[in-house]
């Protein structure tokens, strides 16, 4: 099957089961999910793969993944950029959007499972992680992208990274309110971050060449819930012809003939956030030509040379496919996580939402 058109209520569980099995087979005994067998893991992509497992109902494997993060978290709340075979693989830096993503993953887990006890168990991990991230928010509102091994911040910001953190702050606030905890400082930090993303482009890419050639800088403000639906539709339309290759997928960068599956899945969800279901379904339908016989998806395809490149099949790409399929079909209670902003404004509102979801029968 090279095309797969999805609509509400039609989650292709049998078709995607080999992709789920690929992630499960790659997960290590300690819960870590590396990119592929023999490769390293990083916190962000580890969480992306874990979310894919939750979509597929593999909650126990996902719990192991989050407990691995719990066990490897540094005292300041961060994680190193890479781990391999039970040890730290890269001590060069710690990236703020990688660290923040644990809140997104755990809120996603809670939305699907309703496991209040697990949310409470992992709360200290989330609290420390967000504390680390927000300690690197500048007076202007953006968040420094990384911290060196010696603790020195790399004082510049990425549109993609900060947009991801914006969604993670939404999730962290919802976790806090679900646990009846105060999140006012996170609410203010999220407000400031949104303002700088919307109105202060000069605060990004100050010390390096602009990242605007990357498709993620184009659609991540939509995926991260930074923009209104109307703004999102306008933003995606503006550079659609630059980044989308008909019949293949979304380019990673504007100036290279290379489409990537993970970016295409994320753009699928951004399109849904903008209210463009038709283009989302069409884009997602193109991606399954890049699936291998074992259920894993190749990273991408270079169409001038007509080669798969790189010759890697990452677990996080399979996770992104599962998340996009969920968003298109409404399979789980977390299907709208990346397509809507749903900020619980108080612990009382969180309690009412919890009651509606888990105790009121239809």
Question: What labels describe this entry?
Answer:
Glycosyltransferase, alpha+beta, globular, 51% helix, 8% strand, 10 strands, three-stranded antiparallel beta sheet, 362 residues, five-stranded antiparallel beta sheet, disordered C terminus
Q: What's the alpha carbon Rg, rounded to whole Å?
A: 19 Å
What's the overall average pLDDT, rounded? 95
* CATH topology description: Glycosyltransferase
Main sheet makeup: 5 strands, antiparallel
Query: Would you state the CATH class?
Result: Mainly Alpha
Characterization of this structure:
This protein has about 350 residues and is of the alpha+beta class. The chain has one domain (about 15-355): Glycosyltransferase, CATH 1.50.10. The protein is built from 14 helices and ten strands. The protein has a five-stranded antiparallel β-sheet. Strands 3-4-5 form a three-stranded antiparallel β-sheet. Strand 6 (about 245) and strand 7 (about 250) form a beta hairpin. Helix 5 (about 115-135) packs across helix 6 and helix 12 (about 275-285) packs antiparallel against helix 13 (about 315-330). The model is unreliable at about 360 (pLDDT under 50).
